[in-house]
Specification:
The chain is built from 2 helices and 3 strands; from the N terminus they run αβββα. The model has no long low-confidence stretch (mean pLDDT about 80). The protein has 2 domains: about 15-80, Rubrerythrin, domain 2, CATH 2.20.28; about 80-115. The protein is of the alpha+beta class. The protein binds zinc ion. Zinc ion (ZN) binds next to loops. GO terms for molecular function: electron transfer activity; iron ion binding.
Amino acid sequence: MSDRAKEQTLAEIAPASYECRACGYVYEPSKGDSTSNVPPGTAFDDLSIDWRCPVCSAKKSVFTNIGAKNAPSGFQENLNYGLGVNNLTPGQKNLAIFGALALAFLFFLSLYGLN
Ligand SMILES: [Zn+2]
């Protein structure tokens, strides 16, 4: 065992969850699927090929990898690399918009002052 293994993030260690694109059901490996007698701890890849969505009976191929749930970087909507603005919190966005309005107002006032 090397120390390198310990440097993996939780997201890398945790098995990925899969979401049914047909109905939105999420298969979480840590929970398994009691409907089909799948024991907790079963990775999605280890499910039998004829396993179906317990909610809508969709095939495995309909499921999409949504990454490890409850892991630090497991929220897909936050993975907007490249567009820095989308990484701002709503509060930060409001501040940026308010700041821009205030600057525009000051600019308007300075123009007014020149006349
Ligand atoms: Zn489904």
